[in-house]
Predict the 3D structure of the following.
Amino acid sequence: MALHRIGIIGLGKIAQDQHLPSIRGNPDFELLAVSSQRGLTHEDAQHTFTDWRDLLKLPELEAVSICTPPQVRHEIARAALLAGKSVLLEKPPAATLSELQDLKLLGERVGKTVYTTWHAQHNRGVDEARAALAGQTITRLLVTWKEDVRHWHPGQEWIWQAGGFGVFDPGINALSIVTRIMPEPVFVTKSDLQFPSNRDAPIAADLVFTSSQGGDLKAVFDWRQTGPQSWDIEIDTQEGRRLKLSGGGSRLEIDGRVVVDEKAEEYEGIYARFDELLNTGRSEVDDAPFRLVADAFMIGRRIAVEAFDD
Ligand code: NAP
């Protein structure tokens, strides 16, 4: 299949840590251009811009990876699609559900690929967990996603702004695993959101879910965790199966036996999937994790907690 000439918009942490090396390592892609407001560049890129609108004018550009904060993703993705470019959307795919729906419909209208990436889903442990839970009745789900925001998001002001999602920025990764592996959909029935008094986004959240199968289903997200970090999902089934996914999905235990324990190659998986979608002219718009976050905010109880500074 033809080589995909791709551009990256926003050369922040995730673009540098994952997108640039994954594109370099995938022979189906060629980095044609990057756009960085701060004027950063990359040795692989043939063109560098400070305004993403100029990048979109390149006629030979097929697609863009939009690695900005979510608040500006819709405007950029819309312009890209209208310029005839396919779009890879970092998570969260937009700022609101309506924006994402607009991109899905626009992609269909202009005949270009729209791909919502959920990097945590690209772990073999997640696929194995999904297979192990198929046809089972879930009696207990406990998601524990606790990390140190100062370590993982140093100086990122946008995550604390309204529309930056706060602790749901990592929490949505857990929810993207939940929506992938649970045999029946879950619904948020209770949501306690802790907002630092000086911030417009939550630092912690406690969620309770229900599903048609019933069960004791919960998630705890906290950004104030120092020391060991927790990215764990525990599940018990009525049939007696006990699963533990840890390390963000990279390690899976079933009934106490380690089934998967391997280095995550999430972004390699993302670009392999994007290649398939571009080659077949299809889109993949999975809004299930995003809907759960929207629901958590919609029915959320706001609890003020002490001010938090980086
Ligand atoms: P970041 O380090 O703050 O990088 C975002 C970059 O986007 C900025 O450095 C800036 O790059 C560009 N940007 C900012 N505001 C912009 C605007 N108004 N218009 C155009 N470009 C703008 O954030 P990040 O951690 O890379 O996160 C970016 C996205 O990836 C988020 O949605 C996040 O949830 C997701 N993500 C992050 C991680 C992670 O580990 N950090 C993991 C997975 C997914 P330039 O100055 O170069 O333009």
Observations:
- The chain has two domains: 4-116, 124-261+295-305.
- The pocket of NAP is lined by residues 10-15, 36-38, 40, 67-70, 72, 90-92, 119, 156, 169 (CB under 6 Å).
- The mean pLDDT is 97.
